[in-house]
Write a structure and sequence with these properties.
The chain has about 325 residues and is α/β, with parallel strands linked by helices. The chain has helices at about 10-15, 20-30, 75-90, 95-100, 105-120, 180-190, 220-225, 230, 235-250, 260-270, 280-290, 305-315, and strands at about 45, 50-55, 60, 130-140, 155-165, 170-175, 200, 215-220. It binds zinc ion.
């Protein structure tokens, strides 16, 4: 049974202090008890400094070390409020919106917090879409901040995959790619769609060769079909128009190409959970993913070195 606040009132009651927030994060990061990020030993104790000390190697760490919250000067209570509002507002919020809502001193702080939370919205090793999937690219333009005239015509290419669910849309994936070449598009398909699935595209040459990679590929030539692209692939086009509306509405179109990928992450996170009965569940997912840290693949290899070092210095960090 997952525990998460159902209402703003419950949220406010649950997370009034730093320690309440940290205990919540602790349970999400280590549901079966503390595991040392260095030596993988189970069990540790809390030092007066607030650090958790490993029973095995005596390494000292914190619940936020290695997560998006590391090195932040903001209290955890402020981060929790940012996570709550970001997931409870149906269309999310802008840096300026968050700054006003939380009374933060600077726009930059608010923007950085949202930016870090967006990076946590992509679950590491997430599953790929299955079934019948529409795929198409689109150009997102006019994103440059403070650029006037012709330069604003610079455009970025995004690719969208939308799962068919009857006549509606199931789950989606979106990505910012360098161009619409076969290399870029095949790379996107490979990370977003499970082989064996059916992929429906137009007849752009960049999609040729998908069968050789284990996909069923249905390519409909736009010209011959007598239809327009949005009629041929209605789901991806619906997603693209919702995304554009969100950029213009919530963000006034004022985002840079450099950060487009992170806005796509946020849009996909929210879209794929749009039917969730409880917004609190989105808050829980975001908090969970914010402390999800990939295990260090080298931890085992250099364990011996670290143990010797730890003995020498007693306490690290
Ligand atoms: Zn350890």
């Amino acid at each position: 049974m997952e525990e998460y606040p159902r209402t703003l009132r419950e949220f406010e009651a649950d997370f009034t202090t730093e320690s309440a927030c940290r205990e919540f994060l602790f349970r999400l990061r280590w549901p079966d008890g503390f595991i040392c990020p260095r030596c993988r030993t189970h069990g540790g104790w809390s030092a007066k400094s607030g650090r958790i000390i490993c029973n095995g190697c005596r390494f000292g760490t914190t619940v936020t070390a290695g997560t998006i919250f590391q090195d932040s000067h903001q209290p955890q209570t402020v981060w929790f409020r940012a996570m709550w509002w970001m997931t409870n507002q149906k269309t999310g919020l802008s840096g300026l919106g968050l700054q006003r809502l939380l009374g933060l001193g600077s726009y930059r702080t608010a923007w950085m917090m949202l930016h870090k939370l967006r990076t946590a919205m992509v679950r590491p090793g997430r599953d790929r879409l299955t079934g019948t999937i529409e795929i198409d690219e689109a150009y997102v333009g006019g994103l440059e901040e403070g650029v006037l005239g012709r330069q604003t015509e610079k455009k970025s290419v995004i690719v969208v995959a939308a799962q068919e669910d009857g006549s509606g849309i199931g789950r989606i994936r979106m990505s910012h790619v360098g161009d619409a070449s076969a290399a870029s598009l095949h790379g996107f398909v490979n990370t977003s769609v499970e082989p064996g699935s059916t992929i429906h595209t137009d007849d752009w040459t960049g999609y040729q060769g998908l069968e050789a990679k284990g996909y069923r590929h249905v390519a409909t030539p736009i010209k011959k079909s007598g239809k327009q692209s949005h009629e041929l692939l209605p789901r991806v086009h619906k997603v693209i128009s919702l995304f554009n509306r969100w950029l213009l509405g919530t963000h006034q179109g004022a985002i840079s190409h450099e950060h487009l990928g992170s806005y796509l992450n946020e849009f996909v996170f929210r879209f794929n959970r749009r039917t969730s009965a409880h917004r609190g569940k989105l808050f829980l997912r975001l908090a969970q993913q914010s402390v999800a840290v990939e295990p260090d693949p080298y931890a085992g290899l250099i364990k011996g070195v670290r143990e010797r070092r730890t003995q020498k210095y007693k306490r690290l960090g």
